[in-house]
Amino acid sequence: MNLSRGYLLALFLIVAYLSWQLVTPFVQYVLGAILIAFVLYPLQGRLENYVSSTIAAFALVLLAIVGFIVPFVVVAIAVADDVANILQDIDPETLQLAEIEDRIAEETGFEIDITEQLAGSAEQIGTLLLEQTTAWFSAVTHALIGLGLMLFMLYYLLKEGDTLVAWLREMTPLPDDVQDDLYGELNEVMWAVLAGHVLIALAQGVIAGLGLFATGIPNATFWTFVMVILALVPLIGTFLVWGPAVGYLLVTGEPVLALVLAIYSAVIVGVSDDYLRPIVVDQFAEISPAVIILGVLGGIYAFGVMGLFFGPVILGALLAVVDVINDNYDRLGEEGGTPDT
Q1: Does 133 score more than 70 pLDDT?
Q2: Among residues 217, 235, 248, 295, which one has the fewest Cβ atoms lying within 10 Å of its Cβ?
Q3: Residue 109 carries which DSSP code?
Q4: What residue ranges do the domains of the chain occupy?
Q5: Are 226 and 212 in contact (CB under 8 A)?
Q6: What does the pLDDT read at residue 95?
Q7: What is the pLDDT of residue 152?
Q8: How many Cα atoms sit within 13 Å of 293 on the Cβ side?
Q9: What is the per-residue pLDDT across 221-277, written as a single tens digit (0 to 9) for each?
Q10: So what's the pLDDT on residue 135?
């Protein structure tokens, strides 16, 4: 490597690192924009047959706000409200603090006033929350800026998507047919995760949630949201919520409702999985449940909420790249890796 090439490579690495530092604070919103743009991009192409790319992109951004962002915010508020209700429903008297204090004194010989300790802790927590007011304000401001950035990125990803794809193909040192295979595999993986798993999980969670609402389970909105998340994880599913819900109805003296919920959840939710998943998944790449569960759990740790979607996609993309390498590696070596012209 000569000095000029070394300088350019070092300059590229420095600028790439600094660019990553700029993106990192908003990586969740960037990933969200990419995800929504991928879903809406086919519509962009169809709309451009009738209107300009600018109008088409603007219309789809409005669609994204109405169809994706607003429902997400509404659900988040409803879930937060249910969580607050759960915390408010905790009755200190049911904790039997006096009996706990007597048991501690009996076992250890030390007398402790739990109520006083809790009061002191509450005072400390209140002071801490007051001190964190600025942090909360900063978090809200960051979220608003992030949402604005996501909408701007979504607009330009839709409007200039063709240009971006053409640039990627030009910069990729692979023959055109290999690039076609690669991008085709990645496209199938993306749709397999979104349609074959995320969409199915959403449908299963909502269907199971209807049973919770119908049988009067408290804070059903929160538990429905939990079931949607659990439905993303194979072999676990919604049973971890509706199973205890059936037990709750039995304990509270509602055996008929418990039986109805158990039958509904086991039959209707189960049938929805048996029928919907083959219909959707068969149209796209088949992804192992092991890849999905590892991608979901690992994605949450790596990327936060967006990792629920991108975790399985990344692992699926790895498998797709391996397939492309396996199919073309020897041929590319013989050709010297020169792109087709």
Answers
A1: no
A2: 235
A3: S
A4: 172-341
A5: no
A6: 46
A7: 92
A8: 9
A9: 788 888 887 787 766 677 888 888 888 888 888 888 888 888 888 888 777 766 666
A10: 62
What gap in Å lies between CA 176 and CA 340, rounded to an integer? 6
Secondary structure tally for the chain: helices H, strands E: 16, 0
CA 230 to chain centre: 12
**What's residue 247's pLDDT?**
86
Residue 175's CB is within 10 A of a number of other CB atoms, namely 18
Please tell me which residue, 324 or 88, carries the higher pLDDT value.
Answer: 324
What's the full length of the chain, in residues? 341
261 Cβ partners below 8 Å, 6+ apart?
211, 212, 214, 215, 217, 242, 245, 246, 249
Are residues 268 and 207 in contact, defined by beta-carbon separation less than 8 angstroms? yes
Nearest Cα residue to 236 out of 258, 211, 259, 204: 204
Residue 188 and residue 316: Cα distance in Å, rounded?
9
* Residue-wise pLDDT tens digits, 32-52: 888 889 888 889 889 988 898
Per-residue tokens: 218: 């408290």
Read off the amino acid at residue 120.
G
Q: Which two tokens stand for residue 69?
A: 């962002």
Provide φ and ψ at 125, rounded to 5°: -65, -40
